[in-house]
Write a structure and sequence with these properties.
With 151 residues, this protein is of the alpha+beta class. The protein is built from 4 helices and 7 strands. It has a 4-stranded antiparallel sheet with strand order 4-3-6-7. A 3-stranded antiparallel sheet has the order 1-2-5. A hairpin with a 2-residue loop joins strand 1 and strand 2.
Length: 151
Amino acid sequence: MASLIDKAKNFVAEKIADMPKPEASIEDVDIKGVGRDGVTYKAKVGVKNPYSHSIPICELSYTLKSAGRVILSGIMPDPGSLAGDATTMLEVPMKVPHSILVTLVRDIGVDWDIDYELDLGLTIDLPIVGNFTIPLNTKGEIKLPTLKDFF
């Protein structure tokens, strides 16, 4: 009897492993706005849903690093759901206080940009499987505007 249960467990595990899963990619990271209390960055994340029905997103966690230091981390709870048989674009706003940006002055002063690394964890609720996290990572640089850009 125990061998029958083990066979059933192995069968289910194989079927779940071969099941298509949503895929995600970070499309863009840029400055959204500058205010008195800090700078708001935005990350655009494209998530492709292979299923014909919508899938709820549980949460989206993020960590923004620059010069090897964590400058911001947070969780965006319940950002919505993924449309069925489509690619859904998510916008992740990240607000960095000016006090933290002061620590990046050395990096900005050298080449007038901010080198960054962004780690995202997109947790979705798949039927039968349960919560499933898609890890994402990107590195790049954000060019800061100069006076020439305004005139």
